[in-house]
Amino acid sequence: METLSITFDARHELTGEVGSVKCGLCGEAARGRMLDQGGLARGFGWDCPCGALGIHAPLYDLDELYRDILEAWGLKPRDPDVSPPAPVGESGLLSAVYVDGPALLRGLFAEARSQGAQVASTEVLVRLVVPGFSSPASIWDVVWARAPRQGE
Predict the structure, then answer these.
(1) Which residues pair with 4 in a beta bridge?
(2) Domain-located, residue 92
(3) Mean local confidence (pLDDT), 54-72
(4) In angstroms, rounded to a whole number, what is the distance separating the alpha carbons of residues 101 and 61?
(5) Residue 55 forms beta bridges with which residues?
(6) 10: Cβ–Cβ under 8 A, 6 or more apart, which residues?
(7) 91 found inside a domain
(8) Where does the source fall among the domains of life (predicted)?
């Protein structure tokens, strides 16, 4: 498994570049960057010369990122098929609804494939480096897609 360190300054601003990782589709080095659109803002992505885009997508947040990921991949966005939160009695509060991350990932990939994209998933061991804070490394899910080229 690849290992990547991402360094921030004391104000939690990215310092330097986001390192490259191997593309999940072709295996070449994909250039890292901080994303700046929608729900993916301040998240991380990797651009491969083969045209694929990898996005760090925690499976527990996939229901919230689903639409933005499709759009970032250059595909038609749509919402995932999940149950909406249900009210708790007369309290006005909403209950949490279990989200099945692996099932959402399968749905995301099925949607991307239906639009002609090639998809893959990889894992990267990431350590966030912040002054005065020592974080243990964690495994990140990176979802990859290469949208069909115009005219295909």
Answers:
(1) 126
(2) no
(3) 94
(4) 8
(5) 45, 143
(6) 130, 131, 132
(7) no
(8) Bacteria
Going by pLDDT thresholds of 50, 70 and 90, the confidence category of residue 87 is: low
Specify the number of domains making up the chain: 1
Query: Cα–chain-centroid distance for residue 52?
Result: 13
Our separate counts of H helices and E strands in the chain read 2, 8
- Name the residue type at position 115: Q
Inside any domain, residue 65 = yes
Q: State the amino acid at position 1 in one-letter form.
A: M
Higher pLDDT among residues 150 and 47, named by residue: 47
pLDDT at residue 114 in the model? 97
Query: What is the pLDDT, as a whole number, of residue 15?
Result: 92
The DSSP element (H or E) to which 113 belongs, if any, is helix 101-114
Q: Which two tokens stand for residue 46?
A: 């990797």
Long-range contacts, stretch 43-50, CB < 8 angstroms, 24+ apart:
44/6, 44/18, 45/72, 46/18, 46/20, 46/21, 46/142, 48/23, 48/144, 48/146, 50/23, 50/25, 50/26, 50/146
**What is the residue range of 65's domain?**
2-82+97-146
Return d(Cα 72, Cα 67) in angstroms, integer: 9
Establish if 71 belongs to a structural domain.
Answer: yes
Average per-residue pLDDT for the chain: 90
